[in-house]
Amino acid sequence: MKNSLFTHWLVMCLVSIVFSTTGFAEPADVANQRKVDEEENVQQKAREKYAGIWRIETIASKGNISEPDKRIVFDNKTDGTWTLFIDDKEFSSGTNSFGPLSEPKEIDISITGGEGQGKVLQGIYELEESIQRLCFRGGAGSRPDSFESFYGDESVVVTFVRE
To answer: Both 13 and 85 in a single domain?
Structure first.
């Protein structure tokens, strides 16, 4: 009897040590779903912060800063879709995906309708309560790493104000 009690105690101790050091592993599909859910939660928070109507205040390209001569407005929705209006006429539309944990924060702008349809612009953004800056490269350029535009560079820096 003593021997079986000792064996039982030893097995329980070993099981306890194994689980305390390795933890209870969750199945891979549960872990993958948890990761997908966390990424979607981060995306949704970024979409909500970015949502609203934003008017372009300045555009910097090839080292020159200018104000648009027309009213250009982006209407960003909480579902990640957007519509661009020029003088109250729809010009193009698309979707955004965000990398808000990157430094600087990243954004991919997919144009799905209107002018520029089929293009994807890789950019960076920074966002305050009522001011937003976005930088991307025209054409097939790589994602910029700063909010600067120089002569000979394809980076475009756009400053928006929330309406």
So the answer is: no
